[in-house]
Write a structure and sequence with these properties.
By secondary structure, the chain is of the alpha+beta class. It contains 13 helices and twelve strands. The chain has helices at residues 3-16, 18-56, 83-92, 125-130, 143-147, 157-163, 207-214, 238-252, 268-311, 313-321, 326-362, 371-397, 401-406, and strands at residues 60-65, 81-82, 96-111, 114-123, 135-138, 152-155, 173-176, 179-187, 202-206, 224-225, 227-232, 263-267. Strands 3-4-9-6-8-7 form a six-stranded mixed β-barrel. Helix 1 (3-16) packs across helix 11 (326-362), helix 9 (268-311) crosses helix 11 (326-362) and helix 11 packs antiparallel against helix 12.
Length: 408
């Protein structure tokens, strides 16, 4: 039998039992919609994580002081990092593009009757290089400003919107922790970071300014910093640079080889690979769980096709009597089961698109719809119809024409 007549007969058979066909397709509809929606949520989570890590900077390593030398580590027992350590790293290790010493704090901003709290970083221009952060308006720090603890500040886009919604930020004076500071630049927007932290709600001042004017002293050693942000020239040399940094820090902190490293180094590339692998596994797990509904739908198709074979036994015998071959009968029933599954798959795709749009509008999850997943889901929906429709079709094709005509 040719394809078009087979499809016409299959469509007529499904149309004759509308309610039964709809209920049979329900499993396929739920399966396809679940697979596409779950995988889209998983893909969206992975893309979100990747974008957050990339926003922090590429080829980036973060160096922190380690804790004590025993199993219990604490900030008090850690050997402190110094701004001079960053200079040594940049000078002595090849492949290091930027090494920025950083002090972390908080800044209370007051200007023109407005009050705002922001993250405060004391660092140098290398921090912008390490974080792939550009100054959208204004300029960076000048060398003299970095050396002399000048009262200048770079502000993030969120700070600019809050304090200077109508523009005019460059050249304005704001009070940060009661210290007047001149705004010399506005940073390009980075958006929300990990944990929905606003990366643009930030103030960046010269390191010496932070140490002497804004964050107080309290350092055990002059020039103490909380971390060093390091950027390499390429991703391929990050492992080598990390080993060299550890060796250099052991030398500078006079740490013996038998002791724990005096620093902890966070490799952003490794972090991205680990988190991406984790979310990929979760996406696959979600897809596998949702695929169970497809299998259940396939069992429903097999069940209803077996019922159809029983109901149409005399019809099958009559067709065989007038010349239909067993392969024609099998083709007809396979076409019906495949059509039943494909129509359910198409409805499931439409339902999944509506779900994706609804979830995106609520903002509950980050969604990334992959058209390849849609195509694969439709393919497997059709495959489920063929696989689970094979046994009923084979049973129909192997009926004895005489016994089929006698069937009541």
């Amino acid at each position: 039998m040719r394809l078009i007549p087979s499809l016409q007969l299959a469509f007529a058979s499904l149309k004759a039992h509308k309610m039964r066909s709809a209920l049979t397709m329900l499993g396929i509809i739920i399966g396809v919609a679940s697979v596409i929606t779950m995988v889209s949520i998983g893909q969206g989570a992975r893309d979100k994580i990747d974008s957050e890590i990339r926003a922090m900077g590429t080829n980036l390593m973060m160096i922190f002081p380690s804790g004590g030398r025993g199993p219990v580590r604490s900030a008090d027992s850690a050997t402190p990092l110094l701004d001079r350590d960053a200079e040594a790293i940049k000078k002595r290790i090849s492949g290091v593009v930027a090494a920025a010493p950083v002090r972390f704090g908080s800044g209370q901003i007051v200007t023109s009757g407005k009050n705002w709290e922001s993250q405060l970083y004391g660092t140098n221009n290398d921090y912008l290089i390490a974080r792939n952060w550009v100054v959208a308006d204004g300029r960076q720090f000048q060398p003299l400003e970095e050396r002399s603890a000048a009262k200048v500040v770079l502000i993030g886009e969120s700070v600019r919107k809050e304090l200077f919604p109508n523009g005019g930020a460059i050249g304005s004076t704001i009070r940060v922790n009661r210290t007047p500071m001149q705004v010399i630049g506005v940073l390009a927007s980075k958006g929300s970071g990990s944990g929905q932290q606003d990366e643009d709600n930030v103030l960046i001042v010269p390191l010496k300014t932070a140490q002497s004017r804004l964050m107080g002293s309290g350092d055990r050693i002059a020039g103490e910093v909380h971390a060093i942000f390091l950027k390499t020239s390429s991703q391929d040399i990050m492992a080598s640079v990390q080993g060299q940094v550890e060796d250099l820090m052991r030398e500078r902190k006079r740490t013996p080889e038998s002791a724990d490293s005096p620093v902890r180094i966070g490799n952003l590339t490794e972090m991205m690979a680990l988190r991406t692998a984790t979310t990929r596994t979760m996406t696959a797990l979600l897809g596998a769980i949702a695929s169970v509904a497809l299998v259940v739908g396939g069992i429903g198709i097999m069940n209803i096709m077996l019922v159809s074979v029983t109901e149409r036994t005399r019809e099958i015998g009559l067709r065989m009597a007038v010349g239909a071959r067993p392969e024609d009968i099998m083709s007809q029933f396979l076409t019906e089961s495949a059509l039943l599954s494909l129509v359910g798959g198409l409805i499931g795709v439409v339902l999944s698109l509506l779900l994706v749009v609804a979830i995106s509008m609520t903002g509950a999850f980050d969604i990334s719809l992959n058209l390849q997943i849609v195509a694969v889901s439709l393919f497997f929906a059709g495959l489920v119809g063929i696989v689970f429709g094979y046994y009923p079709a084979r049973k129909a094709a192997r009926l004895n024409p005489i016994e089929a005509l006698r069937y009541d």
